[in-house]
Design brief:
Helix content is 40%, strand content 15%. It has 33 helices and 26 strands. It has an 8-stranded antiparallel β-barrel with strand order 8-9-10-11-12-13-14-15. A 6-stranded mixed β-sheet has the order 20-21-22-18-23-24, with helices on both faces. A hairpin with a 6-residue loop joins strand 1 and strand 2. The longest helix is centred in the last third of the chain and has 28 residues.
């Protein structure tokens, strides 16, 4: 093209552009209008047609062409348009979200994340979600950040690159102020071709096809250059458009067709914009506008998988051998140090100190065992009935007394009501209704004050088997003695009490249990007594202190109690079943019960004379305790045996005494009529099985037949009588006679008079008059004497924590089992799941590992069911005796018993398995993994703790715990898909702590993981987050709701356990 021709075109272009600058030309060009026949020379091929009916589009006809150099289908005459264009002639860009061809001249409204005239230039990574590109890439929710697709804006073409550019040549912009010129540029890497379109006011004017293109990226220290070079270019005008024949505009169609041949260059420099160059085009721009080339400001984008971005290098799988080694070494070190520490602390400490090593102030040393107020106990008309059977009282009209410095023995056969009566005297919580009055030094003392001046020892020893004798008694002293009392004084009190009871020599021996014997039964009983005696109570109650002991140990225990009462002016009350004669001789007061009623109550020294006076003398040489028990048992019968002939039973060759024969210790010795003294008249008595006749051995035979008949008749009469009773239990006539005889006796009247006198004094005291100076106010003076309170909550927590910790490490079986299983199973799982792969099978293996881990720790927590069950009775009795509050016990139990079993094992397990399996090798993911395991284990342990507290029966608690675990496993998310669950029961997943932990572990590991699977030669690239969503897991659920739900559940179940323990786990007798 000559310079004069260029100048001519400029003269034609500039005035028309200026003339049209104020008015936008919206005239549409008739696409069906044929090109000038004279010009093309095809007038003979144009078919005749109606002027009002345009011809049908057919790109095979010369009158129609496919824009953008689209391909014309030889079979149907339709155009196959390149990407970004539509319509029959490929000249219409798509419109809106649905990508339909645009109607009219209005601009397109692109979907969020897309831009450009063709809406094919991505702006955000989110816009590329689900974009099909060289493989399968799943789709994600709009709320889920993309993890696999990205909008690459580097400028190079990987597959199909699109650019949207604004022309920045100032002269061109000045000529077209209301119709901005723009350029779209796209390239296809597969055929090394590019397309160029020039737009004015959102309407395409001409387009070019660039072939044999190559691209490169040039780097510099402060900028990058992206450059495309194409060897061949061909351009075409769109007839009737601006610059291409539009009215008032020039037509450069011939120029584009004849002059634009290439080569062409499209380059962009970071921060400097872009430019399009072609020799003929550059000459035209230079001659008309004074610029060397077309300058552009471009935005480009191509949706790629993040691994397809130029410059991306696939990272090698991290070498986790160092992490594995460090994890294993750390776990092993923790295990060895913990084992060594437990072994060292678990040794029974040898307390060498004695009385001489403890230095006390003189005044404190003198007050230790004398720091109490003497107390006399009077009780009258004590009765007890159960609400379920009010017509049949358990106890009825029991009256008696015991003074300070004395021991009161409560005797009676089994079922006579001894323990029930002792509980009532000790103000224990009873289920039934209690009646009567109990006076202490002539005063009525409230239960709260009474418990401060008394001690109670149960029939069964409930001691912690792992503690030593000294530690057991010392803990009782530390918990119950006043906080103002020095620690040295408390240790001295402990040693002195042990010395008084004769157990100082075994102070370093452990209590032991049935499986590991240590101290004897008698010593254990004296340890229980020492735990109560160490507080220096004014009144000491003991339930069957000789139960289960041999005769020698039983005598030692009672002798210690008598010495305690007489030497230290204490009041001791205990029940006893059938003592030996040398034990009976130690009694000061005796209370004999039969069917809950008083047969005798008074001084023991007057007992034998009393029964002689009513016609029931104790035979010579016979243990009076055995005789009284036999007497009440015989007289409790319903008289059924009075008509049964008594057969001869047992023949003894030695008829003089029964004392030397232990098997005959409860038998009545034979007596001859001549041996009966006038003061002890003979009394006709029914013969029992243990009675002995004094017939010669040659004349005595055992009549087995009569014996069987008599026993059968007795059993029949007993069942008949028990089946016929409707209301209160009938009293046998002979027992009724014994009860009446005591009621009418002088001993009973004397006791009643004494109690009445004290009651009158009590009434005077309530009227603000002085009471007898001989009987001080026990509660008031004790408070004034001691003027102190028990150990504070902090001290209680410290002592109970130490006790719980000692109990744990001195019996390390459970602790060792948990730690060892964590290490062994972690190594086993590490071998099975070693270096898990990033494919579908690796995804499955990860989920399987997490499910197995949670099941392991979940069911391991069931071992905690026995932690509280074994101490339930101990807790109830110690709490009832005022050792500590329920809060301090519970908090120490949780902190030093539950936590060592529920925090360390998951830390050890997770540290070993994380590196062996090859989970996500990042520090945050590792600690999130451990945090989830620990929090899950604590939550499960709190659930099991609540079950153990609420369900007393261990078997039932185990069943309930198993059912709870199975429910949580069912709704964990692996067995039942959350999204497929009926909406009415979807909330069951939210209540499963297994589901919260399982989802948290899965999200922490798989959220950012990309899975690659090769099947049948096809590589599938699937984000793990997609599969997680298919499984019903939520990618954003790690912190909320998963971990926060676990924390809330742990808090709720822990608080519920304490509330139930405090309100319902109480001693009820």
């Amino acid at each position: 093209m000559t310079a004069s021709a260029v100048f001519t075109i400029a003269l034609l272009l500039v005035p028309n552009a200026l003339a049209d600058s104020g008015t936008t030309r919206n005239r549409s060009f008739a696409l069906w209008q044929p090109v000038s026949q004279a010009k093309l020379g095809f007038e003979n091929f144009v078919p005749p047609r109606d002027e009002k009916c345009p011809p049908c589009f057919n790109c095979l006809l010369p009158a129609f062409t496919c824009g953008q150099y689209g391909e014309c289908n030889p079979y149907d005459g339709q155009c196959h348009c390149p990407p970004g264009f539509g319509g029959q002639d490929c000249l219409t860009p798509p419109d809106g979200d649905q990508r339909y061809p645009r109607k009219g001249d209005d601009a397109c409204e692109c979907k969020d994340g897309w831009m450009g005239i063709n809406c094919n230039v991505c702006e955000t990574d989110q816009a590329c979600n689900g974009f099909p590109l060289r493989g399968e890439s799943g789709t994600l929710d709009d709320e889920t950040p993309p993890q696999n697709m990205t909008c690459y804006k580097g400028g190079l073409t990987v597959f199909n690159n699109y650019q949207m550019c604004d022309v920045t040549n100032q002269k061109i912009l000045d000529m077209l102020p209301d119709r901005p010129p723009q350029v779209t540029f796209s390239c296809d890497q597969s055929d090394a071709s590019c397309n160029f379109q020039f737009w004015i006011g959102q309407k395409e004017s001409f387009y070019c096809a660039l072939d044999e293109c190559a691209s490169e990226l040039k780097h510099s220290y402060n900028y990058n250059i992206t450059q495309y070079e194409c060897a061949k270019i061909k351009c075409s005008c769109i007839p009737g458009r601006m610059l291409c024949g539009e009215e008032g505009s020039v037509d450069i169609g011939d120029f584009l067709t004849e002059e634009i041949k290439g080569p062409g260059t499209f380059s962009c420099k970071s921060g400097k914009g872009c430019q399009f160059e072609e020799p003929a085009m550059n000459q035209l721009i230079n001659d008309i506008f004074g610029d060397p080339f077309i300058t552009l400001r471009c935005n480009g984008g191509e949706c790629l998988h993040y691994t397809q971005v130029p410059g991306y290098v696939k990272p090698e799988r991290p070498d986790n051998r160092v992490m594995v080694g460090l994890s294993a070494a750390a776990a092993g070190l923790i295990f060895v140090l913990a084992s060594a520490a437990f072994w060292y602390m678990g040794r029974a400490s040898k307390h060498s100190e004695g009385f001489g090593q403890i230095r006390l102030p003189a005044d404190e040393a003198q007050r230790l065992m004398m720091d109490h107020v003497p107390a006399q106990l009077h009780f009258s008309n004590i009765s007890y009935t159960l609400p379920s059977n009010p017509s049949n009282p358990i106890l009825e009209n029991i009256t008696g007394s015991v003074k300070n410095g004395q021991v009161l023995a409560i005797m009676g056969a089994s079922g006579a009501g001894k323990s029930t009566f002792l509980d009532i005297l000790a103000r224990k919580q009873k289920r039934g209704v209690v009646g009567g009055d109990v006076l202490v030094n002539g005063r009525v003392i409230p239960d709260s004050e009474f418990k401060k001046v008394m001690g109670f020892v149960d029939q069964e020893d409930t001691l912690m088997s792992t503690l030593t004798v000294y530690e057991t008694v010392l803990y009782s002293a530390l918990l119950r003695l006043p906080r103002e009392m020095s620690f040295e004084a408390k240790k001295f009190r402990t040693l002195e009490t042990m010395h008084e009871l004769g157990i100082l020599g075994i102070k370093d021996s452990r209590i032991g249990d049935s499986g590991r014997r240590s101290i004897s039964g008698g010593e254990k009983r004296r340890v229980s007594i020492a735990c109560e005696l160490v507080t220096s109570p004014s009144i000491l109650f003991l339930d069957e202190p000789t139960s289960g002991l041999d005769a020698f140990n039983a005598h030692n225990v009672i002798e210690s109690l008598v010495a305690l009462a007489r030497d230290y002016n204490r009041t001791v009350v205990f029940t006893i079943h059938q003592p030996r004669s040398n034990i009976v001789a130690l009694f000061d007061q005796l209370l004999l019960l039969a069917q809950g009623r008083v047969v005798y109550s008074g001084e023991y020294s007057k007992c034998q004379a009393y029964f002689e006076s009513i016609g029931h003398p104790c035979p010579a040489g016979f243990n009076i305790a055995d005789y009284l028990i036999d007497l009440t048992m015989q007289d409790e019968e319903f008289g059924a045996r009075s008509h049964v002939p008594t057969p001869p039973e047992i023949v003894f060759t030695d008829t003089t005494t029964n004392v030397g024969d232990e098997e005959r210790g409860t038998s009545r010795p034979a007596t001859n009529p001549e041996q009966t003294t006038p003061s002890a008249p003979a009394v006709v008595r029914d013969e029992t099985e243990m009675q002995v006749r004094t017939t010669p051995a040659s004349e005595t035979v055992v009549d087995s037949t009569n014996f069987v008949k008599r026993k059968t008749s007795q059993l029949w009469d007993m069942f008949s009588a028990s089946g016929s009773q409707k209301g209160s239990k009938p009293i046998a006539p002979k027992l009724s006679a014994l009860l009446k005889a005591y009621t009418d006796s002088d001993i009973a009247k004397a006791i009643q008079d004494e109690i009445a006198a004290f009651s009158n004094q009590s009434s005077v005291a309530n009227g603000h008059h002085a009471v007898s100076s001989e009987l001080p106010d026990v509660a008031g003076e004790t408070e004034a004497l001691r003027s102190r309170t028990k150990a504070s909550w902090g001290t209680q927590f410290k002592i109970l924590s130490g006790r719980a910790f000692k109990n744990l490490y001195r019996d390390p079986t459970l602790l060792t089992a948990h730690y060892a299983s964590s290490v062994v199973i972690a190594l086993l799982c590490g071998g099975l799941f070693h270096n898990v792969t990033n494919d579908i099978s690796g995804f499955q293996n990860r989920l399987g590992l997490f499910f197995f881990t949670l099941a392991l720790f979940g069911f391991s927590c069931l071992s905690s069911l026995g932690l509280f069950a074994n101490e339930r009775i101990l807790f109830m009795r110690e709490r009832a005796n005022g050792y500590y509050s329920s809060f301090t016990y519970f908090s120490s139990k949780v902190l030093f018993d539950v936590l060592p079993l529920r925090v360390v094992p998951p830390l050890v397990f997770g540290s070993i398995i994380y590196g062996l399996v090859g989970l996500v090798p990042t520090v945050p993911a590792f600690w999130k993994f451990l945090l989830t395991l620990v929090l899950f284990n604590l939550t499960t342990a709190s659930v099991v703790l609540l079950i153990s507290v609420a369900v007393a029966n261990t078997g039932v608690a185990s069943l309930v715990g198993t059912l709870v675990m199975l429910y949580n496993l069912l709704f964990a998310g692996l067995l039942i898909n959350r999204d497929s669950t009926a909406p009415a029961i979807t909330w069951l997943h939210s209540l499963s702590f297994f589901h919260a932990a399982y989802e948290a572990l899965a999200v922490n590991e798989l959220r950012y993981l990309q899975l690659k699977e090769v099947k049948y030669g096809v590589e599938l690239d699937v984000p793990a987050a997609t599969i997680l969503s298919i499984f019903g897991f939520r990618a954003q659920a790690f912190w909320w709701p998963d971990l926060i739900t676990l924390a809330i559940m742990f808090a709720v179940f822990t608080v519920s356990s304490f509330v139930y323990l405090h309100l319902y786990v109480k001693e009820k007798r």
